[in-house]
Amino acid sequence: MKTLKKTYSKNNNEIVLIGNNTIDIQAKTVLIIGVFHGDEPQGKFLIENYIYAEGRGEAAPLSNTKNRLLFIPCLNPDGLMLKTRQNANKVDLNRNFPTLNWEISENPEYFGGENSSSEIETKFLIEIIEEFSPDIILTLHAPYKVVNYDGPAQEIAEKISEIIGYPVQKEIGYPTPGSFGTYAGVERNIPTITLELDEEIDMRELVSPINKIFDYLF
Questions:
Q1: Where do the domains of the chain lie?
Q2: Does domain 2-217 sit in CATH 3.40.630.10?
Q3: Which of 186, 189, 194, 172 is nearest to 101 (CA)?
Q4: What is the pLDDT of residues 182-205, one digit of tens each?
Q5: What residues are labeled active site?
């Protein structure tokens, strides 16, 4: 695994894309993203645990996989440090994508910026999708304990549901203008899973099912 691409946030924190190389022309590209929201730290912990094989008792299966693996452990490092849903500009990154339904939100918790794709983090992720053309995308969120999906991802969602024991939920239950799921899954037809994790348990309890989910995708 190596750093394939990086940028820096408003507060000069590094945002990195980590990945492997594959020469298999039939390989799929799988992109996994953590910490869209700074108050949801689970993704960074679980991705880094998988990459570096901490607590697994074995080497992570990252060198012999046939697929191309891409990880963004922490998309929103400023929000993570501030412990806020939003980034340093007080923008909810998951409402900042240039979708057909993007709008300026009156709710500051879900503020999607004065303009779509205004944020460094959003632009970085859009560039990655354009450059690497992922076949499957998984984002790690909290706290709803559901497997939400957009685009042609129902079969993948059902398998993830079997592994982690959360129900599959096609709709999250409230409007999400400018969301990443709409941008990637609905409007670009990329199978996109939003895995909402349990925030009330120790993150270490999520290691086993998440490792199994990652192994399934890879």
A1: 2-217
A2: yes
A3: 186
A4: 999 999 999 999 999 999 999 999
A5: 196
